[in-house]
């Protein structure tokens, strides 16, 4: 497969740029290929992973085309990275520690204990996790799962948990270990802003793009995200501090807590009996994101660098192999220390130099253009921006310290996109003149400018077919030249949607399992962000939920704001209606699983007061749009 049917070949400027990458970077250094294949034990005979309905959620052969030579339509550096990330199968890290790689965006690690196995980071989907576990057992025997460990709070490190353990296993005492704060961050990220994040993630990972030379070739951190069943089982053991030790099924672990790095709740693990260090996602074979393109909290590169220094200090002298939840391990004590130190230097350099330029008055876009990495770091393959990038990471540092505003009052109150675009196009002489000049720029290979200027025509007149096609062509060329996998996916997905219309969002991260894990406070907060404020400015509704075996919760909608108060006291208002029910029934109502009248009819809830107020309150909630427009207004 070469890409979507409307794709065009690479223009000569892109071809020359990609040829320059081949000349400039050390492609004769093949150590990563040796490391990525070291310890290979075999892969699955069945190459397609399907869900219960027979739908494909992962295809191991989808990236076989990467074994060929790099085409003109891909940056050779990204092609190299994607070939490495596409290696799939079971691999021995050291005796007793194994990884299944290439079965999802992330790796699943298996550590053998006295009676069974500890599973670390069970992928995104139950289906891929089950397939990974089956591969391990095919080579190492049907050992039971005697522990689960989540290294951090992103879905690709917990979503497949139900493919390796059940609730009954947990009830029997199988521990689930995670960093303190894991549950709070795991559920809030996938619920509060989950719809917008999932929509942008479809662009970021190229989820709707066909795989191939002109389509999706990977995402830098891994190839893609699986699309199976996402689950969540709450942790039973919290890691609360660095130096904490735990023994699970005879497996000794020493933890380093690293909050605020790649995830708000994250940890590294040293296995002293194996001389092995798991770096979670704090050190992988690429420059990571300080602000992911799908959207998230801005990460702290200063703390990230500090924790990497701490990891070297704590474990460098007793570590013979470092592995992570993405990519492939690094073997040898000296190489491990060098690798972690260079990873540290990348984040420290970006932080410190952004602050230096920020304090000289440079704006985010100016800093992104001026920033150059030290030659020694540029020569190290694992520091390249396949997933994060120097450009958008420097902007993230600026945002962390200074916010969205660059200080220029001309940017303080700009018109929104459609209104700005209409005025720009009028000032520039109309759409026909803008497109005429943009085609001249396209012919000169100035695709970056074409994308910037034709965007105004598309937003001023989204029905302008010529503008959409030219914008798609220019985005496509930028994708072909991008070293960053997520940039390529954004560009090519944008081109596809301009040509073919919105392709939708195939991934749903706010799964029923994740929603069930919300605390009641989080559940009420998730309702508050769905209130259509302008429609209910004049509404004043108060509902009290009397929870059996729990404190009452008073929910009030007033001034377009939905607030909740637990307990009784001066902050609570006199309710229009009182409902009495247990917590399980309340959750069913709030999640829309069971209508309240049905619960009352079944005798599972009682009401006192004006019951119509509940329906009126829920009537003011608006559903989010998982397929909102991105490259058009």
Percent range for β-strand residues:
15-25%
How many β-strands, per DSSP? 21
Approximate shape: globular
Rg from Cα = 26 Å
Low-pLDDT sequence parts: none
- What class would the helix/strand composition place it in? alpha+beta
Strand order of the largest sheet: 1-4-5-6-7-8-9-10
* Average pLDDT rating: 95
> Assembly state here?
single chain
> Could you tell me how far the N terminus lies from the C terminus, measured between alpha carbons in angstroms?
31 Å
Helix content: 25-40%
Number of helices: 22
Specify the biggest β-sheet: 8 strands, mixed
Protein described:
- The chain is of the alpha+beta class.
- 38% of the residues lie in helices and 15% in strands.
- The chain contains 22 helices and 21 strands.
- The protein has an eight-stranded mixed β-sheet with strand order 1-4-5-6-7-8-9-10, covered by helices on one side.
- Helix 9 crosses helix 12 (390-402) and helix 16 (465-481) packs antiparallel against helix 17.
Brief rundown of the structure:
By secondary structure, the chain is of the alpha+beta class. Helices cover 38% and strands 15% of the residues.
